[in-house]
Amino acid sequence: MKRTLVVSGAGLLLLLWSAGAFRTPLDWGSPASAQPGPLGGSAPTASLDPLQALSERFEAIASKSAPAVVSIEAIKPRTSPSSKGKTVEESGSGVLIKVDGRPGFYVITNNHVVAQAKPEQITVHLADGRVFRPSQVLADAETDIALLVLDNAVALPTATLGNSDNAKVGRWVLAIGNPFGLNQSVSHGIISARDRGQVSLGSTIRIKEFLQTDAAINPGSSGGPLIDMNGHVIGINTAIASNNGSSSGVAFSIPINLVRRIANQMLSSGAVQRGYLGMQLASTLDPAQAISLGLDRVQGALIEQVYPDTPASSAGLMVKDVILQIDTVTIRSENHLINLVSALPPGQRIRMQVWRDRRIIQVEAEVGDWAKANSKFSG
């Protein structure tokens, strides 16, 4: 049975489909700064028409990358109370990688594709027809990242991970996945925007800094790669904004540098370590609020609530404070602050510039350990 999970956010419908950090140091076999290189086949010549040359470039990237893109099926329990004991088959996409210094192969996908499924209930289908079951599933619900471990596989095609920091707005990209069960589908587009966090993808996904693309991504593409013009994976496709469940040209991918960092921690320690301060932040700081607070621009993170017995309360942060800067980093929004603090190690001391009573004050705090915090904290 096929199922579509639809959640709302930012005035749109965001659809996650289920149908049916670098080495410490870990070497992922990928350059820190991607450089153009041979992709196989005949290189376009200077005499070719520019459109023909671009077409051949797309062809070469797709030919090299597609064999490493897999389809994933997972048997999960139904979530409704009336369906206790019943299961549903859901599907998505993934991409095969090899981690230097570690045996076996790994599949990067979305957590929502495999969440609640046991390893023996997950099937990985390769483009060449081979099938595998993972020996282990490492997952982080807060970023919607999962890593499937294929211990006994040999001679699998793998993708090269690029550098998502180089994914500039306007650059061409390809998306490969299994939309509507149509395996090995390739679409193209550009990077439309970076650092998108103003989307709601359910209660578990808290860390959001998506790449936005207009490459056609549809139900079943979840977990598939977003690929740059060097043939390197720069994102993992996760969601689309849609009013009808189909592509509207607004899709979101997890930057591969975030995937690296999370995957590295899961491989090294089996868990993801996150910092927190312990406060509720306003989802937006609108122009009217900024003016009423005396700010001359819409920037920073507005505090709505400070929880007791937390690093935020110990630092003296207050409701209606606007955090403008942490150390040397200017805070763009509440989502930017959450991502930044989450990436800090517990115990680290930070200095904040805070807007309070129409002036800037300096506040110091010690980052807490999110794993030890109560789940009610969101900042």
Number of helices: 6
Largest sheet: 7 strands, antiparallel
Q: Helix- and strand-based class?
A: mainly beta
Number of strands: 24
Q: Give the spatial strand order of the biggest sheet.
A: 7-6-3-4-5-9-8
Using the alpha-carbon principal axes, give the shape. globular
Indicate the proportion of strand residues: 35-45%
Please give the CATH class of the largest domain: Mainly Beta
Mean pLDDT: 83
At the fold tier of CATH, the topology name of the largest domain is: Thrombin, subunit H
Give the total of domains.
Answer: 2
CATH architecture of the largest domain: Beta Barrel
Helix content: 10-25%
The unreliable regions are 1-26, 30-38
Order of helices and strands: EEHEEEHEEEEEEEEEEEHEEHEHEEHEEE
Kindly report how far apart the N and C termini lie. Answer: 38 Å
Radius of gyration: 22 Å
Properties at a glance:
mainly beta, 379 residues, 24 strands, Thrombin, subunit H, Pdz3 Domain, disordered N terminus, seven-stranded antiparallel β-sheet, six-stranded antiparallel barrel
Describe the overall structure.
The structure is a single chain. With 379 residues, this protein is mostly beta strands. The longest helix has 16 residues, at 50-65. It has a seven-stranded antiparallel sheet. It has a six-stranded antiparallel beta barrel with strand order 11-12-13-16-15-14. Strands 18, 19, 20, 21, 22 and 23 form a six-stranded antiparallel sheet that branches. 14% of the residues lie in helices and 36% in strands. 42% of the residues are buried. It has two domains: 1-272, Thrombin, subunit H, CATH 2.40.10; 275-372, Roll (Pdz3 Domain). The model is unreliable at 1-26 and 30-38 (pLDDT under 50).
